[in-house]
Specification:
With about 100 residues, the protein is α+β, with helices and mostly antiparallel strands. The protein is built from 2 helices and 4 strands. Helix 2 links the parallel strand 3 and strand 4. Helix 1 crosses helix 2. It starts with a strand and ends in a 5-residue tail after the last strand.
Length: about 100
């Protein structure tokens, strides 16, 4: 079974060919999802969640500005903020 996980609390081990991960952090990858797409989703998604929950603590009714809204982290941040009940404004460097 193909799986994906964040490894090492200090961020080490991400470039290893083999690594050890906690069983609770392992996520099975669907057959149709390539490893490179999965890694992009996981890294961008983790960044978006940390930004919205830890830094901004988005709550229902909040007005949230997402900068770089067209990028991977921005797109996921928009979706997470909307799910949290916020109104979202997005900015980008081009149309």
């Amino acid at each position: 079974t193909r799986v994906f996980a964040l490894v090492g609390a200090d961020g080490s081990g991400g470039y290893a060919e083999y690594a050890v991960a906690q069983a609770t952090s392992v996520v099975p990858l669907p057959d149709h999802l390539s490893s490179d797409i999965a890694s992009g989703i996981l890294v961008a998604g983790t960044t978006a969640v940390l930004a919205l929950e830890t830094v901004a603590a988005v709550q229902p009714g909040d007005l949230v500005l997402i900068e770089a809204a067209g990028g991977g982290v921005g797109v996921l941040s928009i979706q997470l903020a909307v799910l949290a009940g916020a109104t979202v404004l997005g900015s980008a460097s081009s149309e």
